[in-house]
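BUG: 3D viewer hangs when loading the predicted structure for this chain

Environment: internal workstation, default settings.
Expected: structure renders.
Actual: progress bar stalls at 90%.

Input used:
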Amino acid sequence: MTSTRERQRAAARARLEKEMAERAGKARKRRQTQAIVSAAAVLVLVVAGTVWLATTLGGDDDKTDTAAPAAGASECVYNELPADQRSPQIKDVGLPSNQQSATGVQTMTITTNLGPITAKVDRSLVPCTAGAFTLLADKNFFDNSKCHRLVTEGIKVLQCGDPSATGKGWRDTDGTGGPSFRLPEENLPTDKRPPYPEGVIAMANSGQPGSTGSQFFIVYGDSPLDPAYTVLGSVTGGMDIVKDVAKAGDDGAFAQQAGGGHPKKEVVISDLTMSPPQG
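Structure tokens produced before the viewer hung:
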């Protein structure tokens, strides 16, 4: 038989082992809980990092790709006319490219029934207008059109470029035609006096900004116009043809409006070309 002291010692050992087991169990639970919390924290950081990476590296889908123009090129704006603004006098040959070369010089040759008229066009000054004219020339836009307006008083200009001004005689709609797009003005002679000297070729417009089309005027004498018309280039040959047309006078058809009239000496453009840029 065991003594009372031995039974007391055995009971004490049992209580101690039970307490140690309970403590060990509680410690295991604390470690498990900490592990779960730590894992959750890591998951949150990983998710947050993924969101940051997606925002930083993958956000380009919401951005518009606006590539910069290539070296030596200009970004141009050609505004297509809406359908309700396209009269029968509008000739649609498509739109020029939005990127146009801004280097080199082109030769414009206007072949007429009276002989050729040539001009120099510097693309560094008028890349967008030169680009538009090159497209129109390549599409035979001006072929068989007439120079519909001559002004001999106040300003001295011969106006051409309406593709609908064709055939025999004159129509009330002559001077209202153009391409299916318009473009902003450029190379305005705001610092020149006079703004439009003899020998300049400039673009006509409606008087509103961004209304340049295909119509142009050849200045055969210094003209005090407002500097609101794109200077396209300068005449290098054939000015004598224009002056001979001016000497013949006009019929006064536009005297009560913009001034001048149809030239009495008819000028028909059989072809207009733009050479590749040089230099």
